Amino acid sequence: MSRATRYPPEKEEGKVEYKYKLVIEKAQKIERLISQMKYRLAEGGGEAFYILGVADNGEP
Description:
There is one protein chain. This protein has 1 helix and 2 strands. By secondary structure, it is α+β, with helices and mostly antiparallel strands. It has one domain. A two-stranded parallel ribbon has the order 1-2. The radius of gyration is 13 Å and the shape is flat.
């Protein structure tokens, strides 16, 4: 049985964003996600990485 990769806790700064799951149910959430993505892109000089299936604490 293989083990899922553990990551270090997500940092507030930088181009990497963890998302345990990506679910958009309300327009408010879309705006928040857009804002968050713009921030990560700015932090990464036009590059951002989204790690899906991982919580903010780095746990799969």
